Structures are given as C-alpha cells and as structure tokens.
Structures
1.
Amino acid sequence: MATAAAPMSELVRATGARQVRLVCGVILFAYVVSHFLNHALGNISVEAMEAGVYYHTLFWQFLPVSIIFYTAALSHMGLGIYALYQRRQFRWRTIEPLQLVLGLSIPALVMGHVIGVRLGYTLYDHQKLYPQELYLFFVAAPGRLWQMTILLLIAWVHGCIGIYFWLRLKPFFPRAAPYLLATAVLIPTLSLLGIYQGGRSIEIESDDRDWRAQNLGRRQVGTVAENNALDRIAGGLNAGYFGLLGLVLVARGVRAWRERRGGMIALSYGNGKTVRVPKGLSVLEASLRHNVPHASVCGGRARCSTCRIRVIGDHDALPTPSQREAFVLTRVGTADPSIRLACQLRPTSDLSFFQLFAPHTHSTDEASTSASIGQERYLVSLFVDMRGSTQLAEKRLPFDTVFIVNRFLGAVSQAVIENGGQPNQFVGDGMLALFGLSADPQTACRQALKAASGIGVHIDELNDLLSHDLREPIRFGIGIHGGEVIIGDIGYRDHVVFTALGDAVNVAARLQEMTKGLACEAVVSEEVRDNAGLAEDALPQQEVAIRGRDEPLAVRVVANARQLAALVDRSERVAA
C-alpha cells in the first residue's frame, strides 16, 4: 500500500495550477476537434452533418463525459482568469499575450451559441441542429456567420498555441511538427468549407415551404419570446463575465497600491547589484522588472531549477516553499533550506542572495532554438571507455598513443553514427553518445544496443588491423541507460558545446565503470532492455547499487556486445 501511495503522493506534489489548466485545455481541445470534424462533413451533405452530430452528442452528452467536460470548461476559464490576476510581469513574447487575449475572448463569443442551443434545449426543448443553425447564419441573420467564424478561428488558434507549448519539449515534436502543422491548417479549412457548403444547401432548400414547415417550427427554433429570453440570459452572463474581468483588473490595481503602501524591500544580488521592489513580487519577477539577467530555462514555470538562488544570512523568515517548489527542489536533491527557486520565492523583507546558475548575457545574431537554451527530452546515453589505455601509454611514445586512441574513438564513432546516434563528448579515451535526438524512445533504445554491437565489430576490425603493433587487443566497456535529460548549449562565451545533463547520463557513466568489476563488455539498464522490446530472458539480470541512488537498479549484463544486434533484430521480427 505504501509503495502504491508513493507515486500518487509525488504526482500530487508535482501538480500545480498550470498542470490542471493544461489537462482541462486538452479536454476542451478534444471537443473542439470533434466539433470541427463534424462541421467538415458539410462538404459531403447536410445529412452527413446531422448523422455526425448524433454520435458527437451521444459521446459528449454521456453523463460522466459531460460532467468532465463542463468541469474542465469552468476550471480552464477560472484558472485563466486567476492567471491574469496572478501574473505580475508582462514582458512576454508575442505569442503569449496573443494566447491570453484569445482565450479570454472565447467565453464572450461562445456564450450566445451555448445558451441558444444547450439552454434552449433544457428550458424549452428546442431541437436546434445543423439545419436550424445554418438557416440562422446564412438566411435569417448573416451577420452572425462572421461572429461564428471568428469564434471558430479564435478557439482553434488558442488551442493550437496551448498544444504547441505543451508538446514543444517532447522528444517526438521535431519529427511530428510538420504533420501537426498540416493538421492544424487542414482541419479548420475543411470545417469552414463544410459550414459554407452546408449553408449554401440550406439557402436553396429554405425556399421550399414544406422544408420551412418541417425545420423552422416552434419545436425547432422556438418562439420570439423564448429566444428573447435566451438572449437576455446570454447578455446577462456576458455582462457578468466582463464584470469579473473588470474586477480582476481592479484587484490587480488594488494589490499594486497596497504593495506600494506596504513598503518596498531591497533585493541584493551578492555582486553589488541591489534593486527595490514592492512586497509580493517573486525574485525572478523582480529581476525581469529591473532587467537583471537571471537564468530561467523554463520561463518561470517551476519546471526546472535553473533559477535557483542561495539566500545569504537568516532564511527562517522566508515564506514556506509551495508544493510545486518543494517538489522541484526535492527532485534535484536539494535539502538545504537556504536554496530556493527564484520564480516561486516571494520575499516579504529585505533579502540578500546569489544566483547558483550564471545566466547567458551574450547576444547572437541568429535566433536561438529551444534546444540551445535547454530542452527536456528522453534520450539514451551510451558511455564507452577504452580499457588499459594507461598501460598502453606507459609503453609507447605519446604520439603513438594518441594515434591508437584516435583510431579507437573513430571506430566507436563510426558505429554510433551508422546506427543513428550522435557522438557528443570525448573525454580522454572515452566517449558519450546520444540516441533519440530525432527518434522515439523505443527506436533510440534499439539504436543504442545496435551501436554497442557495432562497436564490438569495429574494434575487432581495428585489432586485426593493428595486431602487428599491439601486445594485447584493445578492450572496451559500455554503459547504456535512458531517461529524461536536459539538452542544450553548455559553456561560456566561445567555449560552448551541445550536450545532455541529467541523472540518466550519470547512470550510464556508472554502468560503464561497472563493466570492469562484472568482467563484461556492456551493462544495459532494464529501462533500455524493456523499451527496446528484448525478451525477458535475452540477457542475465542483476541489481546493482548506483552511487547517489537509494534504490538498486536492475541491469542486464552483456558478456559479448556483438550479440546485441541479433537480439534487437529478433525483437523487431517478433513485434512485426
């Protein structure tokens, strides 16, 4: 029970308002996609639209789904308004205020449609379906067609921006982006064309008296009095919504006034820089307000720890870390109470601190990509090291040693590149290779295992080539592990390299070191074996202790790395 409760407890700690808003947004976007696809059926016929809406409503009005949907809608709107109040710093890129403005405009634009259709059905049993709505837009009140078109485009763009912010750090996004873009353009285009085609059909059919009698009766569209009542309800709700937005803006002003009256506090950066800000601002917001460079890869969303600061002096008076801040600090192994996240800490008194990560302050003529400033991604790390290089150097001239080490690294790099990996770091006679920069996790794991096999083959060839000059054949050790890492440009000024940082990289290095004690050529984590789809009994398993980890790690011991390619091929045939 305790074991099962631990992941749930961690999930709760990791969940904040942003995560809830994201989940609600995904639910709403699923509804929008379903609705748009239904509109697209108008390119076939109005009858196809009516058939599609039957299944659409059958699903979305199923009671459990309906409860989830309306809860998500209210929660998403409420959290969006709360974000407007909470956000204190508005120096955003263009796309962020655009998303906010579009999102806040949706409730006002959709209110009349929701009240007219859903509440009209609930109160008066109106059956307003596609024929009635298309008649309204194309015959009775053409002006509303433009309002509905604007609403559809705003809802779609707002949702696409949210999906982009959610998926852009995912490992598959670079490969999926062209298809997602095509989908993002195709669906609304077909939807609007479907509405137009359906509307044109209704325009023609509405000239028929029998069609009007069948589709424009009291049960379908209601009476003038009923529709006026629905319009008044929609108008009242819109007035209430705009009033709520006004209250939020007033509350922001009152908060700013109270903070100024409550006094200013001094934030000292430990390098002689001091700024004065109102109480209530986070340290990161204060840095942005006063143009003080401050590292923050995730943009102040508490998804990384690069904005960490160490408080100088007494830290007992600091506000208690929020649930999200405590989760992030625990994830990075920080138990020191003087270390806090600048994006979450809102001091109420003077504070002195220094930043743990120096921000990049140099400029570049080229636009930085998301990977250059840091990106979360699932990667497979392969560490390989040449065995006996110290003894080799003792018995050879330095340039001869360099020649052999370079040939070794060349053979290793060739195997990595042939199997879709990227040689990343060369440290002495060892190398770190990364897999998954342009592949999904399963493919990355299989590529890494095949690369390990290829390393064995290429080193055999190198040993044959240098057999006349080597007293003993070149040996090697390989460690392979996969997991979420941060990739980006690391370094200073002109000495910047692209690499990966994270626990998964460190574990791969530890596994490589273990090949010496285990007398094998490779140690592969169970994570990689499972993702690659190798059979359970393909390789001997054991648990090993990893320095810095409380729990042992399940690994697979590979005596002969060359066998890995055959095991991967076998798993691929079974999967096929």
Note: The two ends are 38 Å apart (CA to CA).
2.
Amino acid sequence: MHKEDFVAIQKTLVDICRLLPETKVPELVVSLVALAVLIVVKEVNACYRQKLPLPIPIELIVIIAATIITHFCGLPDKYSIDVVGEIPSGLKAPRAPDVTLFSEVIGDAFAVAIVGYAINISLGKTFALKHGYKVDSNQELVALGLSNTVGGFFQCYSVTSSLSRSLVQESTGGKTQVAGLISSVIVLITILKIGSLFEDLPKAVLSTIVFVNLKGMFKQFMDVPMLWKTNKVDLLVWLVTFMSTILLNLDLGLAVSIGFSMLTVIFRTQLPRYSILGRVSDTDLYLDTETYKEAKEIPGLKIFRSSTTIYYTNAEMYLEALQEKSGIDIGKLLMAKKKHDAKLKRKQEKAKKKAKKEAKSQIKTVSQLSNGTFTSRESEMNKDEVYEGQRGHSLGNGVALNLKQTSTYGLSQGQVNLAFQNDMSDSDSETGCVKTITTVSLQGDEEMEKVHTLRTHSIILDISTTGFVDTVTVKTLKNIFRDFGEIDIDIYLAGCQACIIEQLETAGFFSESIPKSRLFVTVHDAVLHILQRLEQTDFILNVPCTTKM
C-alpha cells in the first residue's frame, strides 16, 4: 500500500470543504429536486406498502425523467451540468490474463479479495437478518472466486456486492434471485444496445439516488446510544471500525478493526468471573453462592468454576483465583509443611542421638556395677533393652501423633456415577476405606493447623465452560493436582466434555497420580462420590445420581 492511500480520504474531505464556495447552483437544484421526489415517493411506498401491489419504481422514473429533461432542455450546454457522457457498448473478446503482472498486483489483489468478501458477507447477513433467511459464507466465497476467475478473462473489475445498488434493489422491493437476474439482463442490454440513451443523465441524479438509499446505513448511527447503554466494549469496536475506515482507507481500516475486535476477545477472557458453587437444597443444582442465597456450600468441599475457557493467557489467573476463593494459600502451606517436616526430622534425630547417648551411658554404668560378672552376650541384650526403653521414653516425651478418624456411616440416598471409574487400583477408588485426617500436634505450626481448621478435604473443578485445552492448561491442572495433593486435598474434575477428555489423553494428562477416576460427567456425580467415599452422615444428599455413560 502506498503512502498516498493513507491520506486519500482525508484529502477528499479537505477538498470537499475547500470547494464548497465553488458549488454549482444548477446541479445543486437538480440534486435537491431529485432528493425531494425520491424521499416523498419512498415514504409513500413505506406507508402504503400493504395496499400497493408493487412499490413505485421511483429510481427508474427519476432516471428516465432526468435524462429526457436534460436532453431536450439542453442543460449541459446552458448550465454546464455534468452528465454521464459516452457509455461504451459491447463486450471485449476473452483473453488470458497477463501473468507477468502477478508479482506486481499480488499484494493489492489480496487486499481487494479480503475487502470484497467482507463487504459481500456483511451485506448478505444484513439483508438476511432483515428478511429472515440464512447466508452460507462458504458458498458466498466460492461464488466470488468463480465470478472473479471468469471475469478475469474478460478484463472485468473485481466482483463483489455493491452497497449502493444492493440498497436500491432492496428498497424497490427486490428480494429474490429473480430480481438479480432481471437486473443483470437490464445491465447487459444497456451495455450492448441502449447505453447511448443514458448519456445525458446528470451525475447529480445518480449521486442523489445512491445517497437516499444509504438511509439504512445512516440509521446505524442510532446504534451508538443503544450500545452505550448495553455494551460499551461493542461500542468501542464500532467506533474504532468507523474511525479507522474513515482515516486509513477501507482495506487498512478493515484490518485494524478485525485486529482490535480480536484484542477485545482476548481482553474479555482475561476478566472472567470465578465463583464457588453451592448446592440448592433438595436439588442437584449447584449455583454461585455469592449470587444465589439458596445455594449453600457443602462442608469440607469446595466447588470452583470459571466463566470462560482456561488457556495460556488466563491459566495463571485461574490458579490464583482458585486459591483466593477456596481460602487456601498453596505457597504458604507448602512452605509450612516443609518447615514442619524439617522440624519433625530434626527432633527425631535429636531424640535418637540422645537415646543412644543415654543408652551408652547406662550400659557403661551397668558394666561398672557388674564388675565383669555379665557375659558379653548378656551385655548386648541389656544394651538393646536399655536402648529400646530409652528410645520409647524419648519419643514419648518428644513427639505425639494423634490420629483422628471420621465417622463411618453409609449414605442413605444416591448412587455414584462410575463413568470414569476404571482405575480401581488407585488409592481414590471405591475400596471401602475411610479417609483419615492426620493431625500433627506441634507447637508453632500455625499454618499446618490452619489446614485442618478449614477442614477442606476435596476440591471439585467445574470445567464445563472449557471448550479446549492447550499445553499451559494441562500443566496448570497437573500443578493443581500435585500441590493440593501434597497438603492432603483431593482434586476432581467435573463437567468434562468428550472432546476435552480426548485432548487431555493426547497431552498425557492422566497417570497413576491423576487417574480417570477423578473425572465426572456432572458436579453432582463428583459430590456423591466424595461423600460416599468419606461416608459422611452430617451432610446427606437426597437426590440420586441418574447420569449414565
């Protein structure tokens, strides 16, 4: 694209303003008369369209009348009114395109093709929405390609929809392919035989006809107040498209508007709504607890959902929102767990060394008291006994392990969906075992005690809104399973679509640590599975699972 193309429209606007004092009054009068006639008759057509058998073809009438008046009154000679002039007749003989020009026009040809297709499909969808039919975009693209291919052998202009002519035809009542066929025949006859009859048609009349039929396009400015009230992002796209097309020419403006609209899509995915779901009593519905007061969280269980697809641009935000909504800071808890393990190990080693030291001292004392009366074998036995006794005493004073087990009662209602329960050898499978929660009582380990204070033992990730997964998504989910697993919190996936499962399998997501038994078709199935596995009775679901695969 040349530098002049960037300022072509600006120059046009400047020239219009600069040449306003030089306006030709006769042509202005012709335009105003044609404008008044067109507007009045079109309003009559709109008001009496149910009574009129056919709309009044005012455009055709104005063209014929203006041509006759201009010819017989000699307006071009008397008032210097610009007319269409000579119209070439006949068709050129077909010939093969000049292939030597391909390298010079390939860039512009690509831009023309994109802009032409965009205009064609936008007009088609506009009229389809207005008259209630569908437009096949692939079919339109094939039609444009074939038309331009054939037209290339006849030295034709590039083929696309004409905004002005399409609006004129639509405003005169043309709605089917018959109207297009008749228009094509009339254009062909005009080119071959009767083109010379319209040589005296004033250009001002043609411009007025196009201007009047653009009324529908000008009405789109009325969308601005509506978009301001309903969706400011769409309003911004509208304004950027309008300004870029005006200031940067049509092809470059279209490229800018497409790029900007794609940025808005990416921007919207960066601001999804994250929520914790709760169950509505006596139903299998799980809704946002912040929006619906009837939705109550299940004790010890967090159900987390994102309103958009998880992919590389928002995967990190997803993990941060999960920690924030669940109230579990993985970084702090993992650090606290490492400190706790290191502290426990140091105490055990210290106790072991102390026990050995005391055992040696005790053995030495016993040996001195015995004055050699014990045999070497008995001395060794006494040594072991003293060591074991001292070790037990030391551990008893040093570290206390308190195991707390949940109550074991079966669910009275509900069935667990075994859609993905194939890995029965996994530790999370249905073995009848009861999940135990181990509490290590060590002074100063406040972060570890916080985990058990929260009593969150399971988290369900509702990914029903996810349409695809990429490499970053798979890594993020693996990290979630690993990190939460290290602090004894089980992770489950619910709402998995078949295509998502296939993509996860292809990416190597499933393993011994992440079996398919962690997948569930619905959130309700996952909840039933967790509660039955824990055999809790303080929260019983009265809605059975009916989902089958």
Note: Residues 278 and 297 are 4 Å apart (CA to CA).
3.
Amino acid sequence: MGPTASHASATEAAIARFGAAAAAHGQVSTDESLLTERGRDFWGVGGVADLLVRPHGRDAIAPIMRLASEHGVAIVPRGGASNCSGGMMPTAGRVLLDLSGLDRILDIDRENRCVRVEPGVINSDLQEALAPYGLCFSPDPVSAHLASVAGNIIENAGGPHALKYGVTYNHVLSVDVVLPDGSAATFSADDQGPDLLGVLIGSEGTLGIITEATVALRPVADVTHSLMGAFATAREAADTIAAIIATGVVPAAVEWLDRAGIAGLQQFYDTGYPLDADSIVLIDVDGTAAEVAHDQAVVERVLRERATEVRIAEDEKDRDALWYGRLNAPNSVVQSGKGFFIGDVTVPRDRIPEMQEAIQATAARHRDGLLFIAVCGHAGDGDLHPTTFYDRDNPLAASALEAANNEIIEAAMELGGTITGEHGVGTEKIRFMTKRFSPLEIAAQRSIKEVFDPAGLLNPGVMLPDRSAGEPDTSGFGAAVRAALSGDLTVDPDAPLTIGGNTDISANLGNLSLTVGADATIESVNRYLDEHRVSCAAVPATGGQRTIGELVATATGSERDRIRHALLGADVTVIGGQTPARFGAETMKDVAGYDVKRLYISARGAFGALISLAFKISVKG
C-alpha cells in the first residue's frame, strides 16, 4: 500500500471512529444519495463527503467539534447552500456538518430592535416573522429565500439595500461561536479592543461555527417608491447615480442592468424593460411619506434631465413588476440551460462605466468560446455581477471562460477595485488572492487562520492559497491575534500608533470615500470636510491636534462604534516589520480574505502602526 492509499485508509478509519462517537450528539449518515444531495449548493457545485452529521441542537456542536479535533477529521459546515464561490466543498476524507435544521428564532426583542436566532434560520423566513412587528433585518441578498442568517454573517452578505442600510457587518450585535477545537467563544460589537467580531464576519466558515447570533433590526419604512431610468450609455447611467447622491439623497437601493442583462432576462419572461437601452437603473427611495415625497422629487428631476426613459412605481403591484426581472435574475441563470459563471467584482462607484466597458471588451475578445456576458449588480456601491454564458459542448468554452474571468478581475483591480464584493473567495477565487494581496498580506491572514484553527480542519481549502516561499514570518502578528482571542492582549506603551508622517487628505466625491493620512489631525480633517460639504461619521466634531491614527488605534465606546461602521480600508505595518500592507480599500464592499483592518481598531499598536485610512463619507444636507 502506497503512502497516499495508506493516508486515505487512516482518514477513513478516523472518520468511522468520529462518526460512532458523534452519533451521541447528532444524526449521522453515510447514505450516498443524501451525501450527494446535501453536498451540493444551489448552483450544483460541491462534492460528496464521507459522512454527514446533523446536530441534535446547537449545544451539540461543541462536542461534535471536540470529537473532530480529537480524531483529526476535517469539517465542512453547511447552511442554506446559496454560496456563489464554491465555498462549501465536501469531498472524500471530510465530514459535512449540516446546520440547516437549527432554524429556530429564539427571541424577538421589539423594544431593543434585535433578534436572537439559531444559525440555520433562513433570511426570508426571518423577515416574514418580523413583519407583524413592523421590523426587518436589513441584509437582503437576492438569495434571501435560500440563505441562512449565519451564512449572511460568514459571507458578510449585502444585497440591493446595502447602499443605505449597510452590509451584514453593520447589523451583527453578537455571535456565539464554537471554535475548531470545540471551545466556545462570544464575539460582540460592544467588545473593547480589536474588532474580533469583524474578523469572524466574512470568514467563510473557516474560523468557527456560529451557534447563535443576535442581529439588529430596523423599522420597515412607512413608504417605499421605485423609479427606473433607461440610458443610452453606461457613462450617462453612472453620472446620473453620482448626481443623485451628490444632492444628499441616499436611495435605499440603486441596481444596474446592462443591455446584455436586459436581453438575457427577456428570453425567459417579459420584464417590460426597454430593450433598446444600453443600461437601466432601478432605484428605491424609502422613509416617511414626507421624506419619500422629497427624495422622489429630487431623484425624478435628475433622472429626467439625463435618462431616455423614466418610470415611477408607487404601489406594491407596480413596484413588484418593476423589480421582478432584477430579483429573478439568479433563477433565470439556472433556467437558461447554458453553462454559466457568476462573477462578483467591486470598483469605486465612479469607475463603473470603465468596468462595464472592460467587461464587454472581454466578451468581444472571447466570442468564439462564450455566448455573452450579462451584467447586473448593486450600482450604488459599485458591486457588479458579470455573468458569463457559454455552450457546455463548445470545446473553446473552458479556456475562454478562464481567460475572461482573469481579465475581468484584473480590470477591477486596475480600477481600484477588488476581486469579490459579497460572494466571497471560496475555492473559485483562491488563485486571485495572490493578485489582490502581497505575500505579507497573505501571511498575516494565514496567521489568523492558524490561531483560530491550528490543525486546519475547518472548511479546509477555502479562501487562502497554498503557502508560498515568498511569505514572510508574521509570528509576532499571530502572537497578537492569539493574545486577543484569549483575552490576554497586553499593550506596549511605547508601540507606535502611526508611522510615516502622512497628513494627506483627499475625498473621492463620486465614490463618497475619504482617504486620510494617519498623522492628519482631527482639526485639519474637519476643516477639509467642511470645505467640501461632506461629513464622516468616524471623525468627531472636536479633537484638535489628536491624529486620525490615534483616534482609530485608541477608540472606545461610541467612538469605536462609529469607526467600525465607517472604516473602509487601512494601510498599515504588520508588527515586526516596516513593509506597508493594505487591508480593505475605497470600495464600499470588499470580502476578499479576512477583514484584517478590523484588528487595528482600538488595538493601540499591538498589530502594527497605521499609515493611512479610508472611510465612508456623506454629502451634507
């Protein structure tokens, strides 16, 4: 027996022993048809594990994970299986942990506007349960009828209304988690010090299993009206979006469909969208009746100045009809019978036209292997989903698809964007991680994984590429992560909070983002904001000569909370070195890799020094 066969045999034996012990804590199955069915996601991507375990309850997850750790068994968690990046890949030698049955809503706290749920609660089911209370959970991905709340958290899901209300990160109050060794931890938005909750959010099931989550709710808007604008060019559409936001009105949603997307949807049902438009933009405005009347008038005025056609929907029937095509785009993709790949890139909002041009240029270059590339997405925050269609029996399709995907992601990064805005890295985008991040940045992320999961047993093969020879030693960074996780992080009073003396301040008004040198003073930043008639929630009204870097590194209480919600990116050093690293960017959405920038909040230099920071801003009314 060779070494590979011997290893496989040992793994099978370990899984058998694990299964026998885990039967006390959950339903265990080796039924091949069940393993096949539960091992694939909504898109048909996945594999077949050796064993499936369904915990008897959320309290059973800890002993199951302890057993997995003891037996050296790899665990792949499964929720709603709506993931779009191959993030759930059970294969031989792994165990599928099916959490979908843990679907109880534990408590709806109407007074404090929050809800406690088990991990398997489906987003749309939660929304239905909240409706009688006049409340909702803001994240509303198009996959809400499939996606679990825990899945929303570990993917940091967005959705059409993230423009106004934020992504999942902005609504998670706390999570109870079982770590890969079976130990339990609770991470809260109110924790002081480094934002470990922020690191767990968007971690794609690689750091821990969520057993319970408490998420914030908001009142359902009294009134919601929808508008549609059709445009002759992508540039006109993007300029119109920028013009709307420049008025100070923040729409609840701004969605985008290009010509190929409109034509593609029309193959399956009559959307009513204008087939001669280059692009259409769907816009929601919501609030009180007075707020909607004001915002709708502003949006309509801007649309009529620029669009070739404008439609307004003020009742539910008309709104449903207007949105039907966009919200059913995923179903249309599956129903097409064609091969497809759903992309997910984010660029600064003002770079959407160039991204659109790059996508269609790519489609033209690879027309021999591809049918077309349709683009839809969340234009309000620059998150686009180029969906590539091809004939499965075309021998040129595979190479054309790979080349097209490479070109689209390269274009996004050249435009200041990122490789994924909300779908995650999964397995499909791992090869792009080394394009998005430097060896140092990858090494820092690997340190996080190794602290949370030293044996590499939780959702292996997802997100991080194989270790390269160029990755530097980040053991000091890992030690700081370990100390933070154990609650033993001590601060060196001599650790520098900032480095480089960067005092530059610049705003991208088309993207509503602000980049600030860490050594710029709060006074100078406020002066700049006033001059440009914008505001930044992270920057206090007073603070004098205190620097922005000092603010971020030492924030507590409400200051820390405002920074958490406004921070987009950070240029930093990694402790033990002087080489700059960048985590996050000016994009409104970025779920590529672990959200390392969160560790630098309130860390007092424990992970390294701050060089510059990027924040969200808004137009002053």
Note: Residues 84 and 423 are 6 Å apart (CA to CA).
4.
Amino acid sequence: RTQFPSQDGSEHVLMDYGRHQRRLLPALARTYAQAFAHLELLEQFDEVFSGRNDTDSTRQDLETVAAASKALSTWNALDILQVCREATGGQGFMAEHRMVGLRADLDVYATFEGDNNVLLQLVAKRLLSDYSKAFASPDFGTLAQYVVEQVGEVAINRGGLRGIAQKFTDFGSTARSIGFVREEEHQHQLLTDRVHTMIAKLANELRHSGKKDPVESERLFNRHQNDLIMAAKAHGELIQWEAFTSALNKIQDPQTKKVLTWLRDLFGFTLLEENLSWYMINGRLSSHRAEAITDYIDGRLLGRLKPHSLDLVDCFGLTEGLIRSDLAFGAEARRRESLKKEATK
C-alpha cells in the first residue's frame, strides 16, 4: 500500500515509514515464532497420539504447550489484525478488504475452547509443580546456592526451570554490552531467567497456602493471580523463541539463515524491550543497556529487515485466492492512477 508522495514525486509504501516498520516488522517476527512453535506442537501431538512417545509426562507437556500456544496465538492474531487495519486507514475498515471481518471472526477464540487467562493459569500451575518437584530432593550444591541467594536477598539469576536441579551457570546479573544480548546463548539466558525468577518468587509467596485454611489460600491465590498469568505468558514466549531458534539450526542456505536470524533477534529483542522494567528492577540490565536494546531495534534490525519484508510474507504462500482482498494486490495503486488520469482530462 502506498501513502503520500515523496520528494521525487513517487509515492511511499507504508514500509518506508519508521513507525509502520516499528509496528509491522515485530508483528511479522512474532508470527514466525508462533508458526515454528505450532510446528513443534504438531510434532508433539503426533508423537503422543501415534503411541511413539505416549507417557503421562509427555501428555502433560503437550497439554501445557498447547494451552500456552492457544492463548498467545489468539491474542497475537487479534492484535496483529488491529495493527494491519489501522495501517491501511479507511480502506482497511471496508468490508471488502476482510480485516474487520477476520477480527470479528477471531474474537471468540480468546475465550472459545478455554478462556486464555484460565489456560495460562494451568500453565503456571504446571510450572509451579515442576519447581516444587525440583526442590523436593535437590542435590547439596543446588540447595546451598538457593539458600545463599535467599539469605542475601538477591533474585535468582540462573537457568530456566528445566535445569534448576542440575547445574547453575552464572552469566552475571547485568548484560555488559549490546553484543552480549545479541548472542543467542545470552538471549536465551535472559528469557529463561525471567520465567524462573517469576516462578521462584511465586512459589515463595504461595508456600503458606494449603488445605488447612481455604480462605487464606483463596486470598493468596487471588492476590498473585495476575503474576501467575504473566509468568505463564513469559514461558509461552520462551517456547516460541526456542522453536524459532531450533528452526534456524536446520536452515542450510546462508542468506536465508542470516535474514531469519535477524528476524529471530527482532523477536527476542522485542520481548526484552516489552519487559525492560522487569529486567531493570531485578538488576538484569542497566539503564544504558536497556536503552541500547531499543536503539539496536530501531537503528539496525528494522533497517536490515525492511528490504526483505515482502519476501518474508511471501514465504507463507498466501495466494490471491486465500487473501481475497484487492488491497494486497495493487488496488490502491490502480485507484490512484485512475484519479490522476481523470485529473489530466
């Protein structure tokens, strides 16, 4: 879609504008992350229901990942449709271009087959259960490290829930440079650390809840309900980042891998930027490094990805018959050209 003439008289496309790049490219990165996570979910589903790997544990894993994916995917779909509708102005509001209708059709899925907030509570319950099991009989080193950090009133800054009872790897509490955050290993550490720390804090807050006092248990749960949902959401986003990264490792073409790595980094950096207050409050990023994350998104990643935006969208194989909207296939350009011809008569 074009909008407003440039200095040379040609019309800008929307992606020429920094604001539209800021709104649309992170949405595209999130869509890729979701797509890769969905593929992994399908593989898990097949393994369980084909009987190749059908155990109580794998069924619980499948249920947890499905709940997180459903909640995040439906919310993201609604948000992205709204961004696209606004980006196309009044044309996007017209029924013939389908965006308003698609959003109306998708709206029910935020509560259909499970309210998204309820599903994320199920995810959080699973994470708390994993945390509890990890500390049911931890090795001495794990327990000692945990006690030291609790006594010192320092928030846990280690690996994710998957490794809590195995080995702690200390990357330091503050990212030292933007180069640090660009590293795949360190992005993963920052994202997993947030999930783990949130769950550890919740487990500590809820440790006194129990069957002896149902009223107090209900009060504690209600007090921390939003924190539970935020922790589960962070876990779902971590699953998406991991799926994107896993897919990158399977790509053979160097140029394709480079572009998709930029896109994965945009997804990861966007997650960090959205939660900068948490990372700064908990001492994971300094204010200088937090500012550098935003600068890197605006100054590097968006500019690198903008020339590839159409190719990245074309990868989904959305034909004209699937999209069924002239707005995506030059209708606006033809309309403007027609107006120019009328004006010159």
Note: Residues 2-210+226-344 form one domain.
